[in-house]
Amino acid sequence: MISTGFTFGIYPLSVAGTPIGLAIGPEDNYEKISGALNEIRSEVKKLLPRTYAVYMGPETEDKVFNALNRYKKAGLLGDLTIGCLQDPSLSLDFWLNFVRKVIKEYGNLLDSIQITNEPNLTFMDGSKPYVLDALTQGVLTAKEEISKNNLNIKIGFGSVPEGEKTIPQFWNKLMEIGGDNLIHSIDYIGHNFYVDVFEEPLKIEDVSNKIDITLRKFRDTLTSVGIPFSIPIRITENGWPTGKNPFIQVERSYNQQAIVLEKVIRTVYSLRQELNITHYEFFGLRDADSSKDDLFHQFGIMKDDYTPKPAFFTFKKLVQELSK
Fold this sequence. Notes:
Elements: E1 7-10, E2 16-18, E3 21-23, H1 30-41, E4 47-55, H2 61-73, E5 79-84, H3 92-106, E6 112-115, H4 131-148, E7 154-157, H5 170-183, E8 188-192, H6 204-224, E9 233-237, E10 243-244, E11 251-252, H7 254-270, H8 272-275, E12 277-282, H9 310-322
Parallel strand pairs: 1-4, 1-12, 4-5, 5-6, 6-7, 7-8, 8-9, 9-12
Antiparallel strand pairs: 2-3, 10-11
């Protein structure tokens, strides 16, 4: 049965990726994060915090688990993405053991686990030569560990829209390796997309059409490689920052952010039953660094001191209205 409403989620932390590294600013304030999430959530039963655990290799494990423990203490474990950026010289056994450890330690707090973030993107997880094996074996290992520990966690993997910077024939290659075993082990497929963030802003009347094309193409791609319609799509990253695009010097205002956010969410919502879309997760709660005017530091619906932008109240309204 296809849901009549969304499950909403949001990235609650500050650090954001950019084309040239990480956007970092003032430290996260977990008390203020909790307050903001509670305000958005209000009477809604579920608002998933979306967090990330990126495995770089054995020497980074303690650092990753320390971060996960902070998220646990702050109540920020809900939808967890486990990224795979380990050294290519390492055996995948290191990666799979990491997946097992995360599930054993935090599984009772998790609603869902996404294995790999953007595996079809050439400069993220997809930059590693083993990414298809990591995705497939990671999903199967996670499914086995969840079953063994009698946990109720949904398992999926991520993706981005196909384009110049994605791996050619990614979906065909994935199905050749994973096949029915992968299909029978996943509960959803995540999709990260950002409307016009890296180019000239669209006219507001063109935003819906762009989203419609993007999501229909994605569902068609899944169908073409044998992934059934019954496996839902989750929008796992989507956002529209304020500030200035550093490449084309176009400014994006706070008011524009609120208008585009509402148009995007309502458009995705209108497609939810036709395309079987069950979740919408926003990126993100706060800016990495509001003092920097480039948009990669200003994805938040709050400034870095947790002062709300207009989009905060728009998002809150939509969560209240459209949640299942």
